[in-house]
Specification:
Helices cover about 35% and strands about 20% of the residues. The chain has about 110 residues and is α/β, with parallel strands linked by helices. α1 (about 30-45) packs parallel to α2 (about 75-90).
Length: about 110
């Protein structure tokens, strides 16, 4: 399953966080997919705006508290991932709009506010 579904139409990039079984909790894969998307959109002339949303009626429940690899996913590592993603969001020269439909908690609300 793709953790971030990206659709493009008329310059609008719709990015849907796609982990509804975890209420779109942000894990390493989703952080990386978002970071890569923000960088890519900034480099593409065709893309004019990003609309970020979540699948399954939840924007995001925040950081995933059940990391895939507990031995290496300590708090500092998770915070660095979020920091890199937040930096890519803020450096993206195109507008990013959060379409919040349902709960946005923790890192999810921080992403929406960014």
């Amino acid at each position: 399953m793709t953790v971030l579904v990206v659709e493009r139409s008329g310059g609008v990039v719709t990015a849907t966080m796609n982990r509804p079984e975890r209420r779109n909790a942000l894990d390493a894969d989703l952080f990386e997919a978002l970071r890569a998307l923000f960088i890519e959109v900034g480099e593409r002339d065709d893309d004019r705006v990003v609309v970020l949303t979540g699948a399954g009626g939840t924007f995001s429940s925040g950081g995933d508290l059940a990391p895939a690899n507990p031995s290496t996913d300590d708090v500092a590592t998770v915070m660095r991932r979020f920091g890199r993603t937040a930096l890519a969001l803020h450096e993206c020269p195109k507008p990013v709009i959060a379409a919040v439909d349902g709960p946005a908690v923790g890192a999810g609300v921080s992403l929406a506010l960014g």
